[in-house]
Design a protein that fits this description.
- The protein is mostly beta strands.
- The protein is 7% helix and 48% strand.
- The protein contains three helices and 34 strands.
- The strands form eight sheets. Strands 2-1-5-3-4 form a five-stranded mixed β-sheet, with no helix packed on it.
- A hairpin with a 3-residue loop joins strand 21 and strand 22.
């Protein structure tokens, strides 16, 4: 362990952010070197003179919050080797900028272009303009909506899919002026529909249910001749059945997401994460832990799966892992179960979570021991969070939608 008299520490400064990498990265620094002094050193080497640019520093999965010497004392670092320090750009957390009151609990949220859609427990969907915040409501289901996803935009409006406690999914066209129009009624589940996700190609939908089944549906607007005849008999759209049904979970499926156009990830109250191949029509991998899982999100950038669980922890899984370790890392910060998770669309390290503790937390996975900031605090449990470019949106049982924007 370094003594007070040991004034120099060999430090290697590394970063994964190419725009801020430096050629010379090993330095002999005084043990009194602070975060601001490390930051000044990097800026001088980069010829950057901008006070708005700040860096964070991490050593062994722990953010540096003291001097280099103090950290070495606390970590029992011998000083015989080079201390590896990772630095990365510090991002200011978003600030809550707007709040929208709606008619009931917000079961799900989804963006389509510049429109925010919400699925409510009274069976309505809300359509909110991101620029004006003007909100309209349309009745789609007779029972609570648990999940909603925007599929794609057409000339006449946005195609939206919703899943409900009524055991169905409805495929709707929502225009700017006209009322919502139900195009297809997706029937096949025998219990409440809990989650839905749209493939990257937007050609297929996957849904999960309390019936433990995973179902794949087409998003095609084409109708078989027999369905055209049936359409006149149904106000909620043409009846559509699933393309594929997959079974394997022992309890309710609570989250689903596409990795690509044929690979799907699901989580369940049976405490498992399952990976599916729709072309092979089978489950290819199962990871089981010791607590019920409530939500899942996949990152194309980090190639990691993030999950929310009833034990209040956020877990990251690497499906490529072969070391035998089930969990890549665990994030600590919520006080009650984690109801939703969503990766940043821009960063491989950032994600946002919502919880029954009424909070929305922003995370940087390079610091699993603590969240970056408590973005928003609802008056009741949070049920859904979404992240689109520079904005994070949350909704919950307080019948409020919070919009938080990055500067």
């Amino acid at each position: 362990m370094l003594a007070v008299g040991d004034t120099q520490i060999q430090v290697r400064l590394d970063t994964s952010e190419r725009d801020y990498s430096i050629d010379q990265n090993v330095f002999s620094l005084p043990h009194t070197a602070s975060i601001s002094e490390l930051e000044d050193l990097i800026k001088s080497l980069l010829n950057v003179d901008d006070d708005s640019i700040e860096f964070s520093f991490r050593i062994n999965d722990e953010l540096l919050s003291t001097t280099i010497g103090k950290f070495c004392e606390q970590a029992n670092f011998s000083g015989e080797s080079v201390l590896k320090v990772e630095y990365f750009l510090k991002r200011e957390a978003p600030e809550k900028t707007d709040e929208i009151s709606v008619n009931d609990w917000v079961g799900g949220l989804s963006f389509s272009s510049k429109i925010l859609y919400g699925g409510l427990y009274n069976g309505q969907i809300t359509r909110t303009s991101a620029s004006t915040l003007e909100t309209k409501s349309f009745q789609v289901h007779e029972k609570p909506i648990k999940c909603i996803k925007a599929i794609r935009s057409e000339n006449s409006g946005d195609l939206i899919v919703t899943g409900s406690i009524d055991q169905t999914l409805v495929y709707s066209l929502v225009g700017e002026e006209e009322e919502s129009r139900s195009l297809f009624n997706l029937r096949g589940h025998t219990e409440s529909v809990t989650c839905v996700s749209v493939s990257p190609s937007t050609e297929q939908i996957v849904s999960g249910s309390f019936d433990t089944m995973l179902k794949i549906w087409s998003t095609s607007l084409d109708e078989p001749d027999e369905d055209k005849k049936r359409k006149k008999k149904r106000k909620d759209g043409v009846l559509r059945t699933p393309l594929l049904t997959l079974g394997g979970h022992a309890q309710a499926i609570t989250g689903c997401t596409w990795q690509d156009n044929s690979q799907i990830v699901t989580v369940s109250q049976d405490s498992s994460v399952k990976f599916w191949d729709t072309q092979l029509m089978t489950c290819t991998k199962t990871i089981t832990i010791n607590t019920a899982l409530q939500a899942v999100s996949w990152s194309d950038k980090s190639r990691l799966v993030a999950t929310g669980a009833s034990d209040k922890f956020v877990r990251l899984f690497d499906p490529r892992g072969t070391s035998g370790a089930l969990v890549h890392s665990t994030l600590f910060g919520h006080d009650l179960w984690v109801s939703d998770v969503c990766w940043s669309p821009e960063s491989e390290f950032e994600l946002v979570t919502g919880s029954y503790d009424n909070s929305v937390l922003l995370w940087d996975t390079r610091n699993p021991r603590s969240f970056v900031q408590r973005i928003s605090c609802h008056e009741d449990k949070v049920l859904s969070v979404v992240w689109k470019e520079g904005q994070i949106v949350s909704g919950g049982a307080d019948s409020k939608i919070h919009l938080s924007t990055f500067k």
